[in-house]
Amino acid sequence: MDAQNIFLLGFMGSGKTKLGKRLSKLLKYSFIDLDQWIEEKEGRSISKIFKESGESYFRKAESAYLYSINNISATVVATGGGTPCFHNNMDWMLQHGKCVWIKVSNEELFRRLKDTKDKRPLLRNLTDTELKDFIREKLEERMPYYSRAHLVIRSDGLKEQTLANQILNL
Ligand code: S3P
Fold first, then answer.
1. Whether the model pTM is above 0.70
2. How far is the CA of 44 from the centre of ligand 1 (A)?
3. Atom of ligand 1 nearest to the CA of 122
4. How far is the CA of 11 from the centre of ligand 1 (A)?
5. Which of 57, 104, 110, 159 has the most CB atoms around its CB within 10 Å?
6. Per residue in 99-109, pLDDT tens?
7. How far is the CA of 51 from the centre of ligand 1 (A)?
8. Which among 78, 66, 83, 96 is positioned nearest to 4, based on CA atoms?
9. 99 closest CA partner among 140, 23, 151
C-alpha cells in the first residue's frame, strides 16, 4: 500500500476541500481536489458534465481520473461525495492510501447545503423537504462505503493538528 496518500471521503458539504487544503499544508503534502481536477481535464464544470453527458459518464470519468492518481505520493485528495460508491473506487483508494471519512450530522449537512444547492447537479431542483429526505436516504445508501475508511472523524471540534497526527499514526 502507498501509505502516503490521504483520501478524504464524505457527503457533499462535509468540508473535504477546506480540510484537505489545510491538512496538506500542515503535512507538507500536495493537494488535489478530484472534482476540480475533472473540471480542468474535461474543460467544463461538473454541472455541465452532468447536464451534457449524464451521471453515468461522470462516474466513469471520475473513476478514470481517480485511477490516474496512481503514480503520485504524499498527496491529500479531496474526493467527490459519490466517489467511494461507484465502480471499484473504494477498494482502489483503500489500496493506494489512507482513507478518512469526515462524518457530519444530517442536520448540519442540511444547513450547509440548502444555500448552495444551485452549484450541485444532484441537489439543484430539490425543495428543502426533498433535500432533507435526499440527505437521509443517500447517506444511508452510502454509509457502507464511507464506513470502510481507515479512520472516521467528526469534522466539528477536532483540531487539524490532532487529525494530522491521527492520520500519520494510522
Ligand atoms: C457528488 C458530489 C460532488 C460532485 C458531484 C456528485 C455526489 O462533490 O462530485 O456533484 O454524488 O455526492 P462534492 O462532494 O465535493 O460536492
1. yes
2. 15
3. 10
4. 8
5. 104
6. 999 999 999 99
7. 14
8. 96
9. 151
